[in-house]
Amino acid sequence: MKILIPGSSGFIGTNFKQYSVHKDFRDVDLLVVKPEDIDFSGAETVLHLSALVHQMQGAPAEDYFRINTDLAYETARQAKSTVSATLS
To answer: What is the pTM of this model?
Structure first.
Protein backbone atom coordinates (compact mmCIF):
# COMPACT_ATOMS: atom_id res chain seq x y z
CA MET A 1 0.00 0.00 0.00
CA LYS A 2 1.48 3.35 -1.03
CA ILE A 3 0.83 5.96 1.66
CA LEU A 4 1.30 9.68 1.13
CA ILE A 5 1.86 11.40 4.48
CA PRO A 6 1.59 15.16 4.90
CA GLY A 7 3.10 15.79 8.33
CA SER A 8 5.40 12.78 8.31
CA SER A 9 8.21 14.65 10.05
CA GLY A 10 6.15 15.49 13.13
CA PHE A 11 5.86 13.46 16.34
CA ILE A 12 2.94 11.30 15.20
CA GLY A 13 4.22 10.95 11.65
CA THR A 14 7.68 9.80 12.71
CA ASN A 15 6.26 7.27 15.15
CA PHE A 16 3.71 6.00 12.63
CA LYS A 17 6.45 5.41 10.07
CA GLN A 18 8.68 3.72 12.61
CA TYR A 19 6.08 1.30 13.97
CA SER A 20 3.78 0.74 10.99
CA VAL A 21 3.76 -2.58 9.20
CA HIS A 22 3.45 -0.55 5.98
CA LYS A 23 6.76 0.78 4.68
CA ASP A 24 5.90 2.32 1.30
CA PHE A 25 5.65 5.99 2.30
CA ARG A 26 5.95 9.26 0.46
CA ASP A 27 6.56 12.26 2.70
CA VAL A 28 4.99 15.65 2.06
CA ASP A 29 6.15 18.79 3.84
CA LEU A 30 3.25 21.26 3.82
CA LEU A 31 5.62 24.03 4.90
CA VAL A 32 7.28 23.65 1.51
CA VAL A 33 4.56 22.32 -0.82
CA LYS A 34 1.08 23.80 -1.21
CA PRO A 35 -1.81 21.30 -1.29
CA GLU A 36 -2.53 22.15 -4.92
CA ASP A 37 1.08 21.24 -5.84
CA ILE A 38 1.13 17.81 -4.15
CA ASP A 39 1.66 14.91 -6.52
CA PHE A 40 -0.96 12.39 -5.41
CA SER A 41 -0.20 9.99 -8.26
CA GLY A 42 0.48 6.45 -7.14
CA ALA A 43 -0.83 7.05 -3.63
CA GLU A 44 -3.44 4.58 -2.46
CA THR A 45 -3.91 6.33 0.89
CA VAL A 46 -3.40 9.86 2.16
CA LEU A 47 -2.71 10.00 5.89
CA HIS A 48 -2.85 13.66 6.90
CA LEU A 49 -0.81 14.10 10.09
CA SER A 50 0.21 17.71 9.69
CA ALA A 51 -0.82 20.02 12.52
CA LEU A 52 0.25 22.99 14.57
CA VAL A 53 0.40 21.99 18.25
CA HIS A 54 2.15 22.92 21.48
CA GLN A 55 3.82 26.12 20.34
CA MET A 56 5.71 27.25 23.44
CA GLN A 57 6.14 30.80 22.14
CA GLY A 58 2.45 30.90 21.37
CA ALA A 59 1.07 31.07 17.90
CA PRO A 60 -1.82 33.28 16.85
CA ALA A 61 -5.22 31.58 16.84
CA GLU A 62 -5.46 32.31 13.11
CA ASP A 63 -2.39 30.15 12.47
CA TYR A 64 -3.88 27.22 14.39
CA PHE A 65 -7.13 27.51 12.44
CA ARG A 66 -5.42 27.96 9.06
CA ILE A 67 -3.04 25.04 9.50
CA ASN A 68 -5.23 22.61 11.44
CA THR A 69 -8.46 23.24 9.55
CA ASP A 70 -7.99 25.01 6.22
CA LEU A 71 -4.80 23.17 5.23
CA ALA A 72 -6.27 19.77 6.15
CA TYR A 73 -9.45 20.54 4.19
CA GLU A 74 -7.54 21.78 1.14
CA THR A 75 -5.27 18.73 1.14
CA ALA A 76 -8.30 16.40 1.26
CA ARG A 77 -10.03 18.38 -1.49
CA GLN A 78 -6.98 18.16 -3.74
CA ALA A 79 -6.62 14.41 -3.09
CA LYS A 80 -10.28 13.84 -3.95
CA SER A 81 -9.99 16.00 -7.06
CA THR A 82 -6.95 14.04 -8.25
CA VAL A 83 -8.62 10.66 -7.66
CA SER A 84 -11.81 11.83 -9.41
CA ALA A 85 -9.83 13.04 -12.42
CA THR A 86 -7.93 9.74 -12.58
CA LEU A 87 -11.14 7.68 -12.53
CA SER A 88 -12.83 9.77 -15.22
So the answer is: 0.80
Q: Which residue type occupies 3? A: I
Q: How many domains, the chain?
A: 1
Under DSSP, the state recorded for 78 is H
- List pLDDT tens digits, range 58-81: 778 888 888 889 999 999 999 998
- The model's confidence at residue 57, banded by pLDDT at 50, 70 and 90, is confident
What is the span of the domain harbouring residue 48? 3-87
Question: What percent of the chain is helix, strand and coil (3-state, nearest 5)?
Answer: 45, 10, 45
Going by C-alpha positions, the residue among 37, 38, 58 that lies closest to residue 46 is 38
Output the domain CATH number for residue 41. Answer: 3.40.50.720
